[in-house]
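User: What would this chain look like folded?
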Amino acid sequence: MSQVNATSPAYGIGLITVIVGVAASLVFYQTFYLPESLLKPSVDEHILHPVTQTKVEMILGSSDANQQANFVPKQLNIQLGIDNHVIWENIDDTAHTVTPDHRLEDSYSGEFGSDGVIMPGESYEFLFTENAETGYFCIPHPWMTGELVVTKQRF
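Assistant: Here's the prediction, encoded as structure tokens.
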């Protein structure tokens, strides 16, 4: 049985392998893992847990182009920390979407807009944490439109 001593080439190769492995792990941690873990901004607790929720209903008959009311209410004025958690409820008998007129991304909550259709009886929720202003519509029923303005508290 042969033994590896501190002067043999196998010892040096093993030591170099360990050092390279540790260095590669540190580089990965500092360049990829750490920045990814710090991406979400810090947001005040009162914004993350608002006093109330805002509900928008996609009412029965919204898929009819002749019906004036579809997203109820159509215009939302939302205040951060008060009512910035918005829930769109589909009480219609047809599937709908909540799609922004232009791309809107909240740095904490991500991209605004439903991930596909909202089936009857289901809902879509979004927590706004930043000032924003956008119109939105339903892709299958483009006459269904709404607007929202998100602002800081007024007091």
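Residues 1-39 form one domain. If you want, I can go into more detail on any region.
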